[in-house]
Amino acid sequence: MKGVFVTGTDTGVGKTVVAAGLLLAWREAGINAAPMKPVQTGCTGRGKAMRAPDLDLCLRVAGLEVTGREYEWMAPYRFRPACSPHLAVTRARRGICVPDIRKAAGMLLRQYDRLVVEGAGGVMAPIGGGRTMLDIMQALGYPVVVVARPGLGTLNHTLLTLEAVRRRGLRVLGIVVNQSVPGRMGWIEKDNARAIGELGKVPILAVVPYGGRESG
Known about the structure:
Structural class: alpha/beta
Oligomer: single chain
Shape: globular
Strand order of the largest sheet: 2-5-1-8-9-10
CATH architecture: 3-Layer(aba) Sandwich
Helix content: 25-40%
Strand content: 15-25%
Distance between the termini: 24 Å
Number of domains: 1
């Protein structure tokens, strides 16, 4: 396995936290893994100095320092507005080239053994040109980890996400049910995790209670 793609049922479900945790676990296990955030909106700075906050969190958690060239490969498309990728592309007058993302991943794999790739938003988040995040996922071909909310509405969102991913021929490794907002997980939330596994025919990799401010 060259990598894994971490996606979510929506924005703000905790994809970045899960991606950072997976990256750290692999590196502590002796696997030379690296993060990648192909499309990032809500960046800070300007030009080549523009920073991708989700990527920076993963690098910080893993204690990784990378060169400027590696950073470009890890976050090839960075946009300042904190909005949907398709709108950021329109405002920046700069299209997203999916083959270039695949090429950047290939360059990283010359130096690293495995990649943890994080998507932007959900799988149907538009990236411009009539394409969605699924087109990037399919181009890379990595197995998928889906991050889902535990609360009301998650069954519909998660099962639709699983269906969309599988229709593209991608393998789902499992679900991480992540509580990204304060509160206790009651009987409804606990049963939602069980139902997702049963109805989606997918392993529940973890059920994570709220632990602070989430990203992604």
